[in-house]
Amino acid sequence: MSYFRAENLSLHFGGLKAVDSVSFAVEKGEILSIIGPNGAGKSSIFNLISRIYPPTSGRIFFEDQDITNQPAYDIAGLGIARTFQNIELFENATMLSNLLVGRHRHSTTRLWQELLFLPSVRAGEKMHRRRVEQVIEFLDLEAYRDKLISGLPYGVRKVIELARALCSEPKLILLDEPSSGLNVEETQDMSFWIRDMKTELGITVLMVEHDMTLVNRVSDRVIALNYGRVLAMGSPSEVQRHPDVVAAYLGA
Amino acid sequence: MRFLFKTDYEDDIKLFPHSGYVVSYGTLLAFLLIAPFVLSSYLVSQLVFVCIYATVGVGLMILTGFTGQASLGHAAFLAIGAYTAAYLQQFNVPFPVYFLAGGLLTGVVGALVGFPALRLTGIYLVIATISFGFIVEEVLARWESVTHGNEGMRVKTLSLFGQAVPQNGPAFYYLCLAVLILTIVGALNLLRSPTGRAFVAIRDSETAARSMGVNVSLYKVKSFAISAAITGLAGVLFAHKLSFISPEMFTLQLSIEFIIVILIGGAFSLHGAVLGAIFLVMIDPFLTYLKDDLPGIIAGIAATFGADSIAAGKIHDNVAAIASANGLKGAIYGVIIVLFVLFEPLGLYGRWLKIKLFFQLFPLYKRATFKRQKIYVKSERNR
């Protein structure tokens, strides 16, 4: 059985088929990239997995559990974290509190305990802070702890969003265009981090990406999409040589 | 300028980051404790109103400032707290019991209001909460067996552990102060724990909050309930302070006054709630003073510029007519809100931060530090 599986997943907006009967599987511990031209339905697949949209049809399985009808806030609790293409950080909060929200699925304190800030809450806060600090160190974010997000440059926000997702200690992470808006050097850092996430943290990675250098460098397998349908699946080089993929990008 | 050398995660959790805070808040507390002995009874009475309004402000700040859910129905929550107190008092229920009952009942009502609010945002939520306010006002006027309708209800003098606590005495002031301080401490505790961060997350991006595992609906209802409960507690004190309550006290205008408290005080900070309450309580006697004295002053000025006594008398009467016109207070409040939104969107607390930073950085302060930056429009923002 696959670690993560999408079966005949479809998302239709009226007559528009954003995702059209897509099936794929992710094995535990691999890095799977989804590529495709603009509007191919890549981000829509992510939004289906994280339950922002309910699928028109099809099923999603994670660790042999059907998660198609789980509420959106439960997805994180199952161990699936994500980043967004157009950065969705909490702008008027510091980086630390952004990352601590990432720890939300691990918080066990109750409202009345928090109102009194009982020792259990205090201990919990310190524990969360330690885990957050590990992620801060992993991603070199030490300089920004008390900075408000609204004052930080785009490249840093991108990394903070990744950090927030890592803070939830996910088993599967969904990265929506991790390198968009980053310069060459930052993209390189990103590729190291993605590989490290797999090898050091043991996280399975599913990512949408346009930068083929990054895709080639980190992916174990690649899926190519166009018009909501799967064109090709396989190793990065196989997919790039596939005639349908070439046609989708360059025209027949 | 002070640089903090943090050595422990505890440093980021503490309520007082360094000794300077302890000194300044300690001084403030000491002043507030001796206030009844040095200030006139009128000023102490105003301080009681500041405490009550600030308590409501803290409640509203949790909902609007931190969770991002606007409410123009908080006068109704205050009314529910006040009427609960007045009603239970008839059966000789002791103060601690009906005080907590007022908070609890209002919290439950707040949660119920929170449910329809789950599907509403922005202006629609404002309209929904306004309608809630009108409904409560109407119920208070019609449900005569409980509320005595438009006749209103008398509230007996508070008695605590067998001691009478008259609403103009220092003991009542201490009670209100204690409630305010406990509320603030509770709110601060909440804001430094997971729930408070979840509130802020919902304010800034519901989608991201949800994808981080925050049950957005649950936390919105929680925020409404907490905010309403705090307002209900303030309502009990409010009823005792006025010693008489009737439905026309809890109108839309009162809700707008609460919005003024947090907007002018400065959204996004509990300091703002207190500063806004001070501002609001001070502006009322100031307006009364203007109303009484302005016609005479303007007529006097006209007379010195050569107007004869008949013309001066006419000017006096006209100005007096305008000054005592119905609804003028609401109009002035409206103008104040507009001016603050335009010129000081961070409110009084924001102004205080600017002044503080000016002295900290002294020759190097730049006005642009607090300029709101324009960020690019998000094209595919998920809702």
From TrEMBL, chain A:
<keyword id="KW-0547">Nucleotide-binding</keyword>
<dbReference type="GO" id="GO:0005524">
    <property type="term" value="F:ATP binding"/>
</dbReference>
<comment type="function">
    <text>Involved in beta-(1--&gt;2)glucan export. Transmembrane domains (TMD) form a pore in the inner membrane and the ATP-binding domain (NBD) is responsible for energy generation.</text>
</comment>
<dbReference type="InterPro" id="IPR003439">
    <property type="entry name" value="ABC_transporter-like_ATP-bd"/>
</dbReference>
<dbReference type="GO" id="GO:0005886">
    <property type="term" value="C:plasma membrane"/>
</dbReference>
<dbReference type="InterPro" id="IPR051120">
    <property type="entry name" value="ABC_AA/LPS_Transport"/>
</dbReference>
<dbReference type="Pfam" id="PF12399">
    <property type="entry name" value="BCA_ABC_TP_C"/>
</dbReference>
<dbReference type="InterPro" id="IPR032823">
    <property type="entry name" value="BCA_ABC_TP_C"/>
</dbReference>
<dbReference type="Pfam" id="PF00005">
    <property type="entry name" value="ABC_tran"/>
</dbReference>
<feature type="domain" description="ABC transporter">
    <location>
        <begin position="4"/>
        <end position="252"/>
    </location>
</feature>
<dbReference type="InterPro" id="IPR003593">
    <property type="entry name" value="AAA+_ATPase"/>
</dbReference>
<dbReference type="GO" id="GO:0016887">
    <property type="term" value="F:ATP hydrolysis activity"/>
</dbReference>
<keyword id="KW-0067">ATP-binding</keyword>
<keyword id="KW-0813">Transport</keyword>
<protein>
    <submittedName>
        <fullName>ABC transporter ATP-binding protein</fullName>
    </submittedName>
</protein>
<dbReference type="InterPro" id="IPR027417">
    <property type="entry name" value="P-loop_NTPase"/>
</dbReference>
Automatic annotation (TrEMBL), chain B:
<dbReference type="InterPro" id="IPR043428">
    <property type="entry name" value="LivM-like"/>
</dbReference>
<dbReference type="GO" id="GO:0015658">
    <property type="term" value="F:branched-chain amino acid transmembrane transporter activity"/>
</dbReference>
<protein>
    <submittedName>
        <fullName>ABC transporter permease</fullName>
    </submittedName>
</protein>
<feature type="transmembrane region" description="Helical">
    <location>
        <begin position="331"/>
        <end position="350"/>
    </location>
</feature>
<feature type="transmembrane region" description="Helical">
    <location>
        <begin position="21"/>
        <end position="39"/>
    </location>
</feature>
<keyword id="KW-1133">Transmembrane helix</keyword>
<feature type="transmembrane region" description="Helical">
    <location>
        <begin position="171"/>
        <end position="191"/>
    </location>
</feature>
<feature type="transmembrane region" description="Helical">
    <location>
        <begin position="95"/>
        <end position="115"/>
    </location>
</feature>
<dbReference type="InterPro" id="IPR001851">
    <property type="entry name" value="ABC_transp_permease"/>
</dbReference>
<keyword id="KW-0472">Membrane</keyword>
<feature type="transmembrane region" description="Helical">
    <location>
        <begin position="294"/>
        <end position="311"/>
    </location>
</feature>
<dbReference type="GO" id="GO:0005886">
    <property type="term" value="C:plasma membrane"/>
</dbReference>
<feature type="transmembrane region" description="Helical">
    <location>
        <begin position="122"/>
        <end position="143"/>
    </location>
</feature>
<keyword id="KW-1003">Cell membrane</keyword>
<dbReference type="Pfam" id="PF02653">
    <property type="entry name" value="BPD_transp_2"/>
</dbReference>
<feature type="transmembrane region" description="Helical">
    <location>
        <begin position="258"/>
        <end position="282"/>
    </location>
</feature>
<feature type="transmembrane region" description="Helical">
    <location>
        <begin position="45"/>
        <end position="63"/>
    </location>
</feature>
<feature type="transmembrane region" description="Helical">
    <location>
        <begin position="219"/>
        <end position="238"/>
    </location>
</feature>
<keyword id="KW-0812">Transmembrane</keyword>
